[in-house]
Specification:
Blueprint (H helix, E strand, L loop, with lengths): L2 E4 L6 H10 L4 E4 L14 H14 L2 E5 L11 H21 L3 E5 L8 H16 L7 E5 L12 H10 L6 E6 H6 L10 H9 L5 E5 L2 E2 L10 E2 L8 H9 L8 E3 L10 H10 L7
Parallel strand pairs: 1-2, 1-10, 2-3, 3-4, 4-5, 5-6, 6-7, 7-10
Antiparallel strand pairs: 8-9
Length: 281
């Protein structure tokens, strides 16, 4: 099982990977640059290469996450242009670190024509994929519905990928809290969304899962992550997802608040118990 958490890169990319191993995880997510800016970064490439080598040697996988300002669907053409350059920069860093890809939100559109938002997303993603030649993928993440009508359904995820240039350079990252908050899942096992995701090819291209519980009930469109086992999703649904055969090779990454000791150690143990591996003290 590939399981881990979001980690700071304040000490460098390689140090982040070492911290993950020290805490008994074998997957992680990180920001490749300042998460509050689209400014391009020239990283320490040797540090990135050390990260990649360490992860290869210790069987660790990683994903990067784009900055908060990233918006592929924006009605602001200048912001979209900056987003293209920023994501190409993110992909370059992720590639150097040996990461699977870069998570990017489906996008927020606040203009008058909803269809323009989808067109913007396709054009922006295509502008990136047509230039990118590496192995790291853009990983489109489903949204909670808290700030936009877009990106909450499996149909939207599948369609946005299929309409983009070079769709083989695009995968998906599924966020369980977003799925729950949007009303796409009520936390029950054998959920319809998974059958739909399989039917539409979303599961085939699923590269990572953000494993987050929810502070609020299903359908409230409020994106607030809770620690695993402390939210509304419930153990039955989480256990079903963790043990589903279609998820066997997919890394699960926590974006939840840390435990009382400042780590995610207890949540990792809880997840292993839900999957039938290990015990909680």
């Amino acid at each position: 099982m590939r399981l881990g958490f979001h980690v700071s890169t304040r000490g460098g990319y390689a140090q982040a990977a070492r911290k993950v191993k020290q805490l008994g995880a074998n997957a992680f997510q990180y920001f490749p640059k300042n998460p509050r800016s689209l400014a391009l970064k020239t990283p320490d490439w040797k540090d990135a290469q050390r990260c990649a080598a360490f992860c290869t040697d210790h069987g660790i996988v990683s994903i990067a996450h784009s900055p908060y300002l990233t918006n592929v669907a924006s009605e602001d053409a200048e912001l979209r242009a900056r987003t293209v350059q920023s994501l190409l920069n993110d992909l370059e860093i992720a590639e150097a670190c040996g990461s699977l890809g870069v998570v990017v939100h489906f996008g927020v559109y606040k203009g008058a024509d909803p269809l323009e938002g989808y067109r913007n997303a396709v054009l922006t993603l295509s502008a990136i994929t047509s230039q990118w030649q590496g192995n790291a993928k853009l990983l489109i993440e489903n949204q909670a519905g808290d700030s936009t009508f877009m990106g909450t359904t499996m149909e939207e995820l599948a369609q946005i990928r299929s309409l983009s240039i070079d769709p083989h350079k695009i995968g998906f990252c599924l966020d369980t809290c977003h799925l729950f908050a949007s009303g796409g899942w009520n936390g029950s096992p054998e959920a319809e969304w998974l059958h739909k995701a399989k039917e539409l090819g979303v599961i085939e291209h699923l590269t990572a899962v953000h494993l987050n519980d929810s502070v609020y009930p299903s359908g409230e469109k409020r994106d607030r992550h809770a620690r695993i086992g402390e939210g509304y999703i419930g153990e039955a649904g989480l256990s079903w997802l963790l043990n589903h055969p279609l998820m066997a090779e997919v890394p699960f990454v926590l974006e939840t608040p840390s435990d009382a000791d400042g780590t995610h150690r207890l949540q990792l143990e809880r997840i292993r118990r839900l999957r039938g591996v290990g015990q909680v003290d």
